[in-house]
TrEMBL record:
Any one biological process term the GO annotation gives: rRNA processing
Similarity field: Belongs to the pseudouridine synthase RsuA family.
Residues of the Pseudouridine synthase RsuA/RluA-like domain: 4-153
GO molecular-function term, one example from the UniProt record: catalytic activity, acting on RNA
Protein name per Swiss-Prot or TrEMBL: Pseudouridine synthase
Record key words, sorted: Isomerase
Lineage, uppermost ranks: Bacteria, Pseudomonadati, Bacteroidota, Chitinophagia, Chitinophagales
Domain of life: Bacteria
Length: 195
């Protein structure tokens, strides 16, 4: 029987079960059966929702360019982000991926009027009193390498903290960093809007 888990991957943990260069990996935080692997990845310095499973079909469906799945990121950026920068993000910006120019697909970008309720990061972000920060919600259907960070940098607001809040209807709501929740196949597929 196939198994399905959602986890809140903490900051500075590799999205794999083997360590590299002394970095923490998923096996240091989560205890799951053998042959369970992450679907996709989150950068070492990003945190949030990751799906773990032994369902190879789900892995293929989620990672195939033919199937678009909306992913929402909560992004803390340096500076008071301007409405014009949000418009640029929404319309698509040109970023460099592996030395090639890539124009991002249109996405949803909005400013949090109040900082979202999130767990303190460990270690915390360096606080600088004279430099304001903003929280932005970005919802994308593509996931190029370090795309969100490249996008916010391109419009002049570097990313300080990046949390993947949800993929379609599956989210980290109710999970703390390092927590895991097992779901049924039906819950996962329904949450991801997959037939």
């Amino acid at each position: 029987m196939q198994r399905y888990f959602i986890i809140y991957k903490p900051f500075q943990v590799l999205s794999q079960f083997t360590s590299e260069g002394g970095k923490k990996c998923l096996a240091d935080v989560f205890d799951v059966p053998k042959n369970i692997y992450p679907v996709g990845r989150l950068d070492y310095d990003s945190e949030g929702l990751l799906i773990l499973t032994d369902d190879t079909r789900l892995n293929h469906l989620l990672l195939s360019p033919k199937h678009e799945h909306e992913r929402e990121y909560w992004v803390q950026v340096e500076g008071s982000i301007a409405p014009q920068a949000l418009d640029e993000l929404t319309g698509g910006v040109t970023i460099s991926i592996d030395g090639k120019q890539h124009t991002t697909l249109p996405c949803k970008a909005s400013l949090f009027t109040e900082p979202p309720q999130v767990f303190e990061r460990n270690p915390p972000i360096r606080f600088r009193k004279e430099i304001p920060v903003s929280w932005v919600s970005l919802s994308l259907v593509e996931g190029k390498n370090r795309q969100v960070r490249r996008m916010t940098a391109k419009v002049g607001f570097p990313t300080l903290r990046l949390i993947r809040y949800r993929i379609e209807r599956l989210s980290i709501q109710g999970l703390a960093p390092g927590e895991i929740k097992e779901l049924s196949k039906q819950e996962i597929y329904k949450g991801l809007l997959i037939q």
